[in-house]
Fold this sequence. Notes:
- It is built from five helices and five strands, in the order ααβαβαβββα.
- It is an alpha+beta fold.
- β2, α4 and β3 form a beta-alpha-beta unit.
Amino acid sequence: MSIKYQDPSNTEEILDNIRLSQTLGEIKNILDNTFPGWFVGMLPKFSDDYPNLTDSWNKICLQTNSEKKQIIIVDEINPDKDKHSLIYVFIELFTKMGFIVRTKQEIIPCEKCGCALPTQLNWSLYKKAKINIPEKWSQFCTKCQ
C-alpha cells in the first residue's frame, strides 16, 4: 500500500467541518478537498450474479438503520488505521448513510449495464472460499453477455 491519503496536519479542523456539515454534498466536498482522487465513482448496485454481495450490504443497512444508496468506488484503503484514520471516518459516515465503499481493486462496472462486479482477483478469492458465484469470471453480467 502507498502512503497516500494519510491524515493531514489539520485533521481536527476537518473533523469539525464534517460535524458542522448539513448535507452529503458538503461532506463530499470536504472529502474531495482533503483527499483529491480518492473518490473514483459510484455504481448503482451489485450484479444479480452476486447476490451474496447484495445480501451483505442489506445486512449492513439493517444494522445501521439506513436504506441502500450506491456503491462508492475509491482508489485504495490503507489498512493502517493510525495514519489513515480520517479516511475511515469518511468510510464509516458513508456506510451509516447506506452506501458501501469498495476499492477499484475489488469492484469494476459491468461494461454494458454498469452494475458492480468483482475484479478477477476478488472473483478468485470468492471461488476459493466456495461462495456461490458464476463458474467463470467475466467483465459482464450474465444477462449482458
